[in-house]
Amino acid sequence: MDTKKRKELEEKGFKVGSTADFLELSAEEEAYIEIRLEISSLIKIQRNKRGWTQQELASAIGSSQSRIAKIEAGDPGTSLDLMIKALLQLGISKKQIGKFLSDNLKMKTV
Amino acid sequence: MDTKKRKELEEKGFKVGSTADFLELSAEEEAYIEIRLEISSLIKIQRNKRGWTQQELASAIGSSQSRIAKIEAGDPGTSLDLMIKALLQLGISKKQIGKFLSDNLKMKTV
DNA sequence: CTATTTTATGTCATATATGACATATTACAT
DNA sequence: ATGTAATATGTCATATATGACATAAAATAG
Question: From the list B36, B89, B94, which residue is nearest A35 (CB)?
Fold first, then answer.
């Protein structure tokens, strides 16, 4: 991973280091962050596609507007669990979530 | 959802109620639990397929044997985040995780 | 421009997840 | 059977995620 991308992640609060020289993420660490960021961006896209406000989505899952903002911003202090709940409330099915993760193309169909 | 299945979930610690009459989960709540349970079972299957002990998997993600046992038992006091980290360390890619979620067939290919 | 809505950012008290540990239970050898 | 490794179950102190709230900043009317 290049230093620019790493810096971005560190600024968002991700613990990027701990791999010997603090210069590289393991493939698994990268994949984990990638999954989180992709799901986070899917939430934002789908929410907007439906014309929902962050407040509306928040209410639908018993959360708060600021929490949704943090999720969509890729804040690491948020869980995949809450993200999945958000997607499901947006009407995205398990199957569609799976398709989104497996297809590298950016989900035309949802 | 039938009462038998609900009882199983409640025994595992899931908050099943809060939907008016405490008899039904919303489709989204069900889907969320289903995703967790399927991923949990995928972890167990893939770990065994590789001949890893729970302790070995735990060490690979900086966790503990008991935590892996709880994940594989479907304990709700565990996060999707940790589960995904486990899968990735088992060599399951994001793409394969996606396929597993989208295909309803039980992952011959992984 | 000005008002109003929406989103972003920060803080805080509380809830939940965590690894570590002890120990029970089970599987699997020899 | 008897030991030995693997897994399950429970507890605890600590770390992290949480919703709520305040408020700033941006976007979108009008």
Answer: B94
* DSSP at A33: H
Residue B64: nearest nucleotide (C-alpha to C1'): C19
- Name the closest residue on chain A to residue B60, using Cα atoms: A28
Name every residue whose Cβ is closer than 8 Å to that of residue B38 and which is 6 or more positions away in sequence. B100, B101
Length of chain B: 110
Q: Which residues contact B76 (CB under 8 A, 6 or more apart)?
A: B12, B13, B14, B36
CA A99 to chain centre: 15
pTM of the model: 0.90
| Distance (Å, whole) CA B52 – CA B54 | 7
Q: How far is A71 from chain B (nearest CA, A)?
A: 14
Q: How confident is the model at residue A19 (pLDDT cuts 50, 70, 90)?
A: very low
Task: Specify the pLDDT at position B14.
Answer: 76
Does residue A86 have a pLDDT over 60?
yes
Q: In chain B, which among 26-55 make CB contacts under 8 A with chain A?
A: 28, 31-32, 34-36
Tell me which residue has tokens 């990268």: A30
Reported as a pLDDT band with limits 50, 70 and 90, residue B81 is very high
* Spatial separation of the C-alpha atoms in residues A66 and A89, rounded to whole Å: 17
Interface test with B, best of A87, A88, A103, A109 (most B CBs within 10 A): A88
What residue has token string 């038998």? B4
